[in-house]
Amino acid sequence: MEDQSRRKFLQNAGMASLASVTGAAAGPERTKELFIHHVFFYLKEPNNAQHEAQLLEGLYKLAKIPEIQYVHIGKPAVTNRPDLVKDYTVSWMCFFKNIIEEEIYQTHPIHVDFMRDYAHLWEKMVVYDSIGPKNVG
């Protein structure tokens, strides 16, 4: 499938799945819980400053997706505890009002472009998604 038609297919598929969760099908649990999407990127060449800069460039583009409420881009902190995992290169954490907003993000053209244009840089990525009440404490 050529890139343009594949992209159009992914966008249409995303909009179709989004349509299936809107309105009554969305349910209160899909609209009221804060959604956090946290991704850890492991670059193929972790010491390659140019590749890291390219990934950061892509993440800053990704941060422009309007459904994102808050973004944090980070690197492993210089703290030393035996329980810390510090083997990743860059982390990406973003907050959404709810899972529906995150599903819109997943099929947004900027996200589709990000995956196409920057995936060659990492050997793996680990994703943690979590939900919870908007107000705790």
TrEMBL record:
Chain ranges passing through the membrane: none
Segments forming domain Stress-response A/B barrel: 35-130
Gene3D superfamilies named in the record: 3.30.70.100
Entry protein name: Stress-response A/B barrel domain-containing protein
Pfam families tied to this protein: Dabb
SUPFAM superfamilies according to UniProt: Dimeric alpha+beta barrel
Record InterPro entries: Dabb, Dimeric_a/b-barrel, TAT_signal, TAT_signal_bac_arc
